[in-house]
Each structure stands twice: as structure tokens, then as C-alpha cells.
Design goal:
The chain is mostly helical and 67 residues long. It has one helix and no strands. The longest helix has 41 residues.
Length: 67
């Protein structure tokens, strides 16, 4: 069985396939860059030095709390 497709239909199919692949690549690239940014933010938050500042009276608790 031989299927004959006109050149116009064939060109339209090629056009749609090319643009679908381009959008797909752009979506994958966007997701990958977003994931890298999120991982970088997590790494930055986990590795930064954590030095809590003390209050004026030298305590680390909130004022008014008794321990």
C-alpha cells in the first residue's frame, strides 16, 4: 500500500514537528536551569555560616522568656 501525501501537507507536518521539538527542547532547558538554581540556593543556605546575633543583654533567647 502506497500512501501519497501532497507537498503542502508534508511541509505542514515537517513544520509542526520541527516546532514541537524546539518547544520541547526549550522546556527541558528551562526545567534544567530552574532545578540548578534551586539546588544552588539549597547549597548556599546549607553552607553559609550560621552565627546568630545575641540580644543587647547578651542572651540568645527572646526577651521576656524565662528558661
Amino acid at each position: 500500500m502506497i500512501v501519497c501525501i501532497s507537498f503542502k501537507v508534508q511541509d505542514e507536518l515537517i513544520y509542526l514537528i520541527d516546532h514541537a521539538v524546539t518547544l520541547s527542547k526549550a522546556a527541558i532547558l528551562g526545567i534544567a536551569i530552574g532545578a540548578l538554581v534551586i539546588l544552588f540556593m539549597i547549597l548556599l543556605a546549607a553552607c553559609r555560616p550560621h552565627n546568630p546575633t545575641s540580644f543587647a543583654d547578651g542572651s540568645f533567647d527572646k526577651p521576656g522568656t524565662s528558661s
